[in-house]
Design a protein that fits this description.
Strand content: 5-15%
Distance between the termini: 10 Å
Largest sheet: 5 strands, antiparallel
Number of domains: 2
Helix content: 40-55%
Strand order of the largest sheet: 2-1-5-4-3
CATH architecture of the largest domain: 3-Layer(aba) Sandwich
CATH class of the largest domain: Alpha Beta
Order of helices and strands: EHHHEHEEHHHE
Radius of gyration: 18 Å
Shape: globular
């Protein structure tokens, strides 16, 4: 398992993100599809719980897709830390909502998202340079000395994160980040 980072664009109509139910929908969208929910009826699941799960599923389906970067979050955060704009991309800036085991979710505003998207072309060169000079240090998890981990694991996740910021900036969205 381990600690993973997830990112989801926040629709402009949900900003500022203060409503607990909306925060929960963004951070805890169900991983169960509609067919699985239908099958649960036959297993004796309490009707109230099934109704709550259906409502959460419906709310989550209306939100932009989430993107995870797995366990690359700590190394990317450290490797981007020297750039004032990109430094907030991985762990966010503004805490919102309840503690999610590893702290509250972190919101980036549309202006911050736009600045990150504009700065993103320098992210990979910065990561490569920081990797070559000092590496990720003692970043979680302890896998960074494995061969080709930069190109096969870290940079693809950096690219995925860049696509989240580009898409969110294009729609005027904020971005919510959380660890789970």
């Amino acid at each position: 398992m381990g600690i993973r980072a997830t990112y989801r664009p926040v629709l402009p109509e949900h900003l500022p993100l203060t409503d607990e139910a909306t925060i929960a929908a963004y951070c805890h969208s169900p991983l169960i599809d509609a067919a699985a929910l239908s099958r649960m009826e036959g297993y004796g699941m309490p009707a109230e719980l099934l109704a709550e799960m259906r409502a959460a599923h419906a709310r989550a389906a209306e939100l932009p897709a989430a993107c995870g970067i797995d366990k690359a979050w700590d190394a990317l955060h450290r490797l981007l830390a020297s750039d004032a704009v990109l430094a907030i991309a991985v762990l966010g800036k503004h805490p919102v909502g309840p503690d999610l085991s590893y702290g509250p979710a972190q919101l980036l505003t549309p202006d911050e998202v736009a600045a990150i998207a504009d700065a993103w072309p320098r992210a990979e060169p910065l990561v490569r340079a920081a990797w070559a000079s000092e590496g990720p240090g003692d970043a979680y998890p302890d896998v960074w000395d494995e061969p080709d981990v930069l190109d096969s694991y870290l940079l693809p996740r950096l690219s995925n994160l860049g696509r989240v910021f580009a898409a969110a900036a294009g729609e005027g969205c904020g971005v919510l980040a959380w660890l789970s």
